[in-house]
Amino acid sequence: MHLMILGCRGIPARHGGFETFTEDLAHFLVARGHEVTVYCQIDAHREPSEDEWEGIRRVNIPAPIHPLGTIQFDWISTRHASRQPGVVLTLGYNTAILGFLYRLRGVPNVMNMDGIEWKRAKWSRPQRLWLRFNEWAGARLANHLIADHPEIAIHLERHTTPKKITMIPYGADLVNELSAAPLARFGLRSKEYYTLIARPEPENSVLEIVQGHAASGINTPLVVLGDYTGQANEYKRAVQQAAGPNVRFTGAIYDRQVVGALRFHARAYLHGHQVGGTNPSLVEALAAGNAIIAHDNRFSRWVARDAALYFDGPEKLSEIFRFLENAPQKLAELEWNSSRRHLERFTQQKVLPAYEALLLQYESKAMGVRRRHLQTPSLPAESGPRKLPSEPIKVKME
């Protein structure tokens, strides 16, 4: 099978969940003997090119990093992919209308519909209308839809039939042990800090989490990963102003070993995402056996279940922080539940083969594409399972 992956910024992963997933899936498929091409968005001032990274073909397309630049990148990528033999996996529906090219040329397109993107607070009204339109278009133009959460599958049924939808969540590798050495760089000690890994956006509850930590009065630091530079951004500025003296901003970190260590050794992982389906960062916290404190919504509750304590605002969160300061048995219980939930539903051994099996169903259709569309064009000049500990004593939060 030749798989073409579009919709992420590229590999190696340096941005978010889609990029990490792309890297993991591509490595898995290449090891299984498949060919994988990933379309990568590069600096607008560079020249278009193709290369190979760890056995994965990369098509590097220059485009500006802003919404219109992303549309440009997606358009060039779609035109290029639609003229090649293979199966397309599109991540996200932000420019799903471009999928008409795959329909015209008989190229199978499987689309991961991600979350309910148009509900994000950062979008203007015209942008939300564009995203809602593309959600509708993606559901109709794609050959098959992947929902990463049961609630997303239900949401998509308003646009198409259930038989066109397959629910496959994200997965993560087991983490049994990680060196604590990277913590020294930040002046931290294992199990003596909380971690928040999220983009600084309102629907990720970053402001509420920082406010809740400040109101709790605890001395245990809250470590916030993410880019909070650029004072022109009002939300970033509000987060920094609300932060108490024990909040530490590390900046954006793309080294997966460092991020993994900060997550693995945290007393608990904070997850404030309100919009979307199965968030990869939450799955990685389960895989690391973290105790979790999550925003109370239908998406997080299905993923974490009893591996988390849930908050719906700063007051409830500050109460949780104070409770956990002197509740080692509760923390042990949450950690055990995280490990169990990960093994139950979110291992890569379950997720990645499920993607492979679904994509292979469309390989025969890809082989039937008319010969005139199988010519490869030149790039356009346009810019082992974890052993669970014995179950701890259950402790109720008062």
Detailed description of the structure:
- By secondary structure, this protein is of the alpha/beta class.
- The protein is 38% helix and 17% strand.
- The protein has 2 domains: 2-171 and 348-373, 3-Layer(aba) Sandwich (Rossmann fold), CATH 3.40.50; 181-345, Glycogen Phosphorylase B (Rossmann fold, 3-Layer(aba) Sandwich), CATH 3.40.50.
- Strands 3-4-2-1-5-6-7-8 form an 8-stranded mixed sheet, sandwiched between helices. The protein has a 6-stranded parallel sheet with strand order 11-10-9-12-13-14, sandwiched between helices.
- The N and C termini lie far apart (55 Å).
- Residues 370-378, 380-387 and 389-398 have low confidence and may be disordered.
**What is the end-to-end distance?**
55 Å
| Annotated CATH architecture of the largest domain | 3-Layer(aba) Sandwich
Order of helices and strands: EHEEEHEHEHEHEEHEHEHEHEHEHHHH
Number of DSSP E strands: 14
Beta-strand proportion: 15-25%
Largest sheet: 8 strands, mixed
How many discrete structural domains? 2
The strand order across the widest sheet is 3-4-2-1-5-6-7-8
Indicate the low-confidence ranges by residue numbers.
Answer: 370-378, 380-387, 389-398
Structural class: alpha/beta
Query: How many helix segments?
Result: 14
Task: Describe the global form.
Answer: globular
Radius of gyration: 22 Å
State the share of residues found in helices, binned by percent: 25-40%
**If you average the pLDDT, what whole number results?**
90
For this structure, the CATH topology of the largest domain is Rossmann fold
